[in-house]
From TrEMBL:
<feature type="domain" description="N-acetyltransferase">
    <location>
        <begin position="54"/>
        <end position="191"/>
    </location>
</feature>
<keyword id="KW-0808">Transferase</keyword>
<dbReference type="Pfam" id="PF00583">
    <property type="entry name" value="Acetyltransf_1"/>
</dbReference>
<protein>
    <submittedName>
        <fullName>GCN5-related N-acetyltransferase</fullName>
    </submittedName>
</protein>
<dbReference type="InterPro" id="IPR000182">
    <property type="entry name" value="GNAT_dom"/>
</dbReference>
<dbReference type="InterPro" id="IPR051016">
    <property type="entry name" value="Diverse_Substrate_AcTransf"/>
</dbReference>
<dbReference type="GO" id="GO:0008080">
    <property type="term" value="F:N-acetyltransferase activity"/>
</dbReference>
<dbReference type="InterPro" id="IPR016181">
    <property type="entry name" value="Acyl_CoA_acyltransferase"/>
</dbReference>
<keyword id="KW-0012">Acyltransferase</keyword>
Amino acid sequence: MFIILGKSCKETNISWYKNGMPYNYNINPGDCIVNIKIREALFNDYKSISTLVKEVHSLHVKNRPDVYVDVENPFTEERFKEILNDDKTKVFVAEDCNNEIIAYSIVEIITTRNVPILKERKFVYIDDLCVSSTHRRKGMGKMLFKHIVDYAKKSGYDALELTVWEFNSDAIKFYESLGMTTRNRRMELKI
């Protein structure tokens, strides 16, 4: 994938080519995107992705210690291999010009089971999406999200879904800014 940028971060649109196909992305004020490559993850990416998973896990442990256990390695190599070998799961990474992975997303392809009262659906579920803390608010998450949306559209899926914790107001605002809406709520009562 090649990205063609304007002369400064004040440009409002970037274009890139992947497999000979042109893509465009509108940049919002404040975004600053530099030579980013989005691709499917390889096993060699494990260490970089594992570091980002730890960032997400630490946030969850801090805010929901009643749910999450503080473990040294929340994302094992074995689990990563399972995900990479699962034909219903994709792992996308965003790399900067130094080939450093600065964001990742794990997405699952889900087909609802045949239940008489529900329509059968095929959709993409974002299991994880994380941008490195040093690269947030620079448009990387938007670019990765857009890549996932494009993947879902090209693959013929009818929706994109995810779960976000109520404590994570930054993530909620981010997803809402990308057009996502709340579909339902999972509520709890601690006893």
